[in-house]
Amino acid sequence: KLFFTDYGNAAKVERCDMDGMNRTWIVDSKIEQPTALALDLINKYVYWLDIYLETVEVVDYQGRRRQTITKGRQIRHLCGLAVFENYLYTVNSENFSILRINRYNGTDVQALARLDNAKEIRVYQKRPQAAVRSHACEAEPPGMPGGCSHLCLLSSSYKARTCRCRTGFILGSDGRSCK
């Protein structure tokens, strides 16, 4: 799945398949300006910052079990969001400090360091990634993911895929090659 925020005409947090199909709103009420998003892949939670409402909130992948993690004026200056173990990490764009927020107890906020002009944050760990089952976009033959000549996008399950072409090309009648 692909998760994203939008605060155009109607602010929302959404999800869709990697090929853009099955677009679903998971949060569309009591939300104004969601500007950053982080996923807890293990527990299937979506966290976001709303700088207008000055909140950090969370829902599950279906948009249920919504909770406010923390609220207050300091949220207005936050950008970027990452989750790792028990904490959310973000950057204060006013003073470029990296903040750590306990995601179960939002009152536990700690400044960790300062960086010059930071606007985004990512967490990397040494622990190996979980093994991935085979999927429809595996290279077959080598160099052609999912048999697609340009792009292979997973669809509604790991067994389904959609081929797409780079800009300036059109998908052939075989649904795999680009011309």
TrEMBL record:
Q: Where are the LDL-receptor class B repeats?
A: 1-43
Q: Give any single GO term for biological process.
A: canonical Wnt signaling pathway
What InterPro entries does the database record attribute to this sequence?
6-blade_b-propeller_TolB-like, Cueball_EGF_LRP_Nidogen, LDLR_classB_rpt
Any one Gene Ontology cellular component term annotated for this protein? plasma membrane
Q: Name the domain of life.
A: Eukaryota
Pfam families in the record, alphabetically? FXa_inhibition, Ldl_recept_b
Among the GO molecular function terms of this UniProt record, one is: Wnt-protein binding
Q: What is this protein's record name?
A: LRP1B protein
